[in-house]
Description:
This protein has about 400 residues and is an alpha/beta fold. The protein folds into two domains: about 1-75 and about 360-400, Urease, subunit C, domain 1 (Roll), CATH 2.30.40.10; about 75-345, Metal-dependent hydrolases (TIM Barrel, Alpha-Beta Barrel), CATH 3.20.20.140. About 30% of the residues lie in helices and about 20% in strands. The protein has twelve helices and 18 strands. It starts with a helix and ends in a 10-residue tail after the last strand.
Amino acid sequence: MRRATIFIGIVLIATSALAEDLVLVNGTVIDGTLKARFQGNVRVRNGKIAEIGIFKPAAGETVLDMKGLIVAPGFIDLHNHSENAIEKNLGAISQITQGITTAVLGSDGSGPYAVEEFMLPFDEKPPALNIATFVGHGTVRHQIMGADYKRAATADEMNRMGQLVESAMREGAFGLSSRLDREPGSYGTTEELTALAKVMARYGGTYITHVRDEGAKVIDSIKEAIEIGRAAKVPVQIASIKLGADTVWGKTPQVLAEIDRARMLGVDVAADVYPYTEANLNEKDVRSFSQHAWVMIASDGGLGVERPGSAGAFPRVLGQYVREQKVLTLERAIRKMTGLPASRIGLKERGVLAKGASADIVVFDPLQIRDNSTPQDPFAVSVGMRYVFVNGTMVLKDGQPTGERPGRALR
């Protein structure tokens, strides 16, 4: 036993960030499916998970000892705004240090309609993490209506917007996004959004929306999003769900009841929450939203976005809501960061630790993980994340970036 321990230590020191064939041993595995944690090993080969469970490493395999650490799927951020900065910041340090291995861009109606043109540079010069994108309602509306957008669209304009959405979906967009509380999206009617969602539905996408009102009319706004999903027969994701005015604080049960009621009636609706209060949301409501079975965690930030979630959203939940406040179990929190968001947009090979899945893996210390970012210092990196693997390549080692960029532009 003593000899084996020494061997593992020596291999760990010599490990290359590019190691394709390796085994993570002795970790506490949480697989992203809500199954109870277990002690076991994870074998990675050629960028995929080759085996998971109790087994012995083979001769010649690189072995990393994960005793005392959590081994989980890489985090999937469904609401990430790094699109304007990632091309100049391919290392994405503030993202990988909080465990994000896939950033889904183009939320809030801002996603590109020329998806292939947007993605091509990342094929040629990959980032450290995977990226995906939505096509934006605001983007296609601006393209078709130009400066004359402060009105309802005509049938012809909706048809031409639909053609852009269809093209974007064919080029690999994962769905349609909207932001209805700001221009130009705020002038879009329910009819217009339903028509575009129906086009998107032909390609299996998800409709993600920042709803029209988060104050006095928040319930009506949630109902509008649900109606679009019902009419278009598409999954609906309510982005950054919140009660954005003190006059509606404490009405979380009523909002969540609308989601529950819709799901009982067959509408596939879910949401994500930003785990900070500086966005005009109180702490009790954040906790209540985060506990709901169909509300997941998202940063609503990203590279260059000056808010604490940009560098700390996921460690904040693991440190504050799991370890300190015990609002969530670790299994439930991990599910909200991995398997659940993956399922919302059809990422079948990511979000879980399972044989054959892409080897997007995070390893963190459950006693140390926490966010450091604040409104005054929004880019302070988190601590406690020990290793991060993207497509089987190590991008974070002993808490430090390796400089590797194995991410993929997902379509």
